[in-house]
Write a structure and sequence with these properties.
Number of strands: 16
Structural class: mainly beta
Number of helices: 1
Radius of gyration: 15 Å
CATH class: Mainly Beta
Largest sheet: 9 strands, antiparallel
Number of domains: 1
Order of helices and strands: EEEEEEEEEEEEEEHEE
CATH topology: Jelly Rolls
Length: 202
């Protein structure tokens, strides 16, 4: 299924399990089903077929920033709303607003064959702004509690410049150990620039 979101200059397509994605009055809504996740354990050797989560992705050109306020109906540990970057079957990354495991937390996962997992900081409430940016083969993750002042979370590379330039970006919902959760994204914004500074709040 393809979905057009007016702030984004590219169409989005669904991947993985059915996320029941919908867009109305500026709000994107997606659902994760029971025990849906996208993670390749460092201790494991393969991505199990059931280890997948609903994604809604498109392909931007050039440098960019994708911004959204993410609200999660937290019900179980590790329920999350995610901004997602996909370069290849085993090269992808997640910027998560996740219940980890008891408090809403900014978390990141970068997968290069296997996934890592890192927590950044706790966020009060059930909403936060997330931002993913790209220049060349570099990607940056930021989060904000007010949508204005941004906290640097992580910078990393995925693939070479050619593969990174064709990356898919977008949205993911997950409920790895729970019975499912709903995620909404609003204040969606797309910028065709890399941030002026990664650590100065801009």
């Amino acid at each position: 299924m393809d979905l057009e979101i007016p702030p984004l200059p590219f169409p989005l397509r669904t991947y993985g399990p059915d996320g029941h994605w919908s867009y109305e009055d500026g709000v994107l809504t997606g659902w994760a089903g029971p025990r849906q996740d996208r993670f390749v354990p460092p201790t494991g050797s393969s991505l199990e077929p059931a280890s997948d989560a609903p994604r809604l992705l498109g392909a931007p050109d050039g440098d960019f920033q994708l911004i959204a306020r993410v609200t999660v109906g937290f019900a179980a540990a590790f329920d999350a709303g995610v901004l997602y970057v996909h370069v290849g079957d085993r090269e992808w990354a997640k910027l998560c607003f996740e219940r980890s495991p008891d408090e809403p937390t900014i978390c990141t996962v970068v997968t290069r064959g296997h996934s890592d997992d890192s927590n950044a900081f706790v966020v009060p409430g059930s909403s936060v702004w997330l931002r993913v940016s790209r220049t060349g083969s570099a990607f940056a993750f930021h989060a904000s509690t007010d949508g204005s002042t941004w906290t640097f979370v992580r910078i990393f590379s995925l693939g070479d410049e050619k593969s990174a330039s064709s990356a898919l970006i977008g949205f993911l919902a997950q409920s790895p150990v729970g019975e499912g959760c709903v995620v909404t994204y609003d204040h969606i914004e797309f910028r065709t620039t890399w941030p002026k500074g990664l650590r100065d709040g801009s």
